[in-house]
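TASK: fixed-backbone design
INPUT:
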């Protein structure tokens, strides 16, 4: 059974990836073709010709039209067929599905569900994006060999950082610190404070702390699969107000998960920080440390996926730290149940 939620905005690509070449990408199991029109607007069609099902991405972009590379049928950016070589009439079945898109945060967002529900206002907010005093690393991507819900499990689970990310954002000080969970209509938050703790390696390397710190980890998961992590450190004993956190060592890490198939996921990420915001060397350092951190998750979750497929079981044992992941899974199931027969990639849709 599918685990996908179709009525949601997903990152299809970073803006810089979408240009005047045909970009093929599988999204929620559908073959999708992305390109940019001559006026600069992005377009997305099902990457499957209605004639013999050849991928349209093997064809050519002619102005704003896509010409199939097999027999030359040509489609405009709405999916209507505008030419069938060798015949005058255009069969009524000769159209492909076009997907609503919206460009924001240097990313091209796609709506895979009912087009009538595609409201760009529903795209998740990224606070501090583009604000002075906040350094940005964006345009980042990893491919995960795991179902996206294993990744959402991981992204509302601050406890794993102690064990998986010892080189960057975790250390032993967090071992016995519990996690508190809060739930909203469309998000779950799992958080904890680790007090009087030595800084984690990333903070020790880039921060300015002489003694122990109080460290916060706030892991938000917006349905169905946008993760937003607020983490940072302040001198131990400092009042944990927003203003003090902003003048401490603070990061906002956004991970946009786009299911590719049931067993693989596109992982687009960006990172905002308040330290050395304009320093490109620090940006490069943050980019490589966070990429290392997420690759640690990707490597681990590929093994988890493999064992799930081998056993047909997701978990034999449930722990207290699974409260937030279990809530997310229940909420996703409710969203799926609410989606009455979603439109698929049928070219006649
Ligand atoms: S398969 Fe596309 S025109 Fe024949
Ligand atoms: Fe992780």
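OUTPUT:
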């Amino acid at each position: 059974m599918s685990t996908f939620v179709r009525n949601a905005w997903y990152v299809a690509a970073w803006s810089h990836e979408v240009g005047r070449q045909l970009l093929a990408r599988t999204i929620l199991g559908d073959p999708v073709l992305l390109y940019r029109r001559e006026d600069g607007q992005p377009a997305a069609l099902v990457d499957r010709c209605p004639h013999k099902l050849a991928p349209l991405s093997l064809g050519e972009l002619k102005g704003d039209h896509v010409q199939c590379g097999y027999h030359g049928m040509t489609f405009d950016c709405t999916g209507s067929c505008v030419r069938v070589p060798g015949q005058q009439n255009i069969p009524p079945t000769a159209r492909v599905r076009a997907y609503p898109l919206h460009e924001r945060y240097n990313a091209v967002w796609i709506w895979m569900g009912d087009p009538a529900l595609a409201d760009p206002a529903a795209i998740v907010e990224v606070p501090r994006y583009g604000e002075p005093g906040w350094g940005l690393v964006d345009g980042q991507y990893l491919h995960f060999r795991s179902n996206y819900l294993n990744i959402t499990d991981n992204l509302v689970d601050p406890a794993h950082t102690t064990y998986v990310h010892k080189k960057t954002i975790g250390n032993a000080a967090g071992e016995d610190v519990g996690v508190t969970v809060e739930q909203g209509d469309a998000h779950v938050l799992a958080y904890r404070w680790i007090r009087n703790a030595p800084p984690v390696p990333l903070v020790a390397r880039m921060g300015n702390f002489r003694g122990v710190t109080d460290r916060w980890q706030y892991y938000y998961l917006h349905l169905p699969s946008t993760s937003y992590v607020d983490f940072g450190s302040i001198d131990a004993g400092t009042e944990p107000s927003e203003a003090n956190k902003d003048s401490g060592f603070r990061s906002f890490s956004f991970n946009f998960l786009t299911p590719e198939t049931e067993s693989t996921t596109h992982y687009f990420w960006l990172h905002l920080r308040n330290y050395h915001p304009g320093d490109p060397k620090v940006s490069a350092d943050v980019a490589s440390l966070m990429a290392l951190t997420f690759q640690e998750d990707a490597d681990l979750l590929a093994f988890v996926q493999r064992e799930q497929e081998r056993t047909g079981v997701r978990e034999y044992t449930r722990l207290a730290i699974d409260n937030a992941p279990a809530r997310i899974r229940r909420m996703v199931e409710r969203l799926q149940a609410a989606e009455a027969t979603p439109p698929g990639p049928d070219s006649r849709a």
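COMMENT: The two ends are 22 Å apart (CA to CA).
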